[in-house]
Request: fold
Amino acid sequence: MRFRLTPRETSFYDMFAASADNIVTGSKLLMELLGADSSARGEIAERMRAAEHAGDDATHAIFHQLNSSFITPFDREDIYSLASSLDDIMDFMEEAVDLVVLYNVEELPKGVEQQIEVLARAAELTAEAMPHLRTMDNLTEYWIEVNRLENQADQIHRKLLAHLFNGKYDAIEVLKLKQIVDVLEEAADAFEHVANTVETIAVKES
Reply:
């Protein structure tokens, strides 16, 4: 058997880019959910579920490549962390959409659209950043901006919680809506984890 001494490093970069592009698809489905009536949400949830499965496939492909590569473009634990965090983002977005459908939420509280807009912007920045892993150039602004967006998401989340507990909603509705906005906040946190991992990789490689 002939051993490959040099890794096909480009495969990792391409797979990270594909995973991030899929997250952009998920963020667009979240945006679509905002403007959809209840009858259309089930179909959006199906497309989000398909996107989440595609994300799982991308993550498994990265892990398979990681396990079969003798040499990797950067530390194995960082590759694993980056792939896992990208997968987490997709999982949280899919969970949020699924909860809206399962709970038969008639109207999302004001402020959720701001949460989703932050996620959509973070998704775009992440997709733009992944190709730069090849050279480690022009990444500083990416992780600074994603961290800023995560801080913005925290503020939006706190305002949403205050709104939910202002007495307008009954207790059951509060529980449903709180779970949805909490999951969206977890998605924002996962974007920050990705950005922090990219920063760690860039520092090690500099």
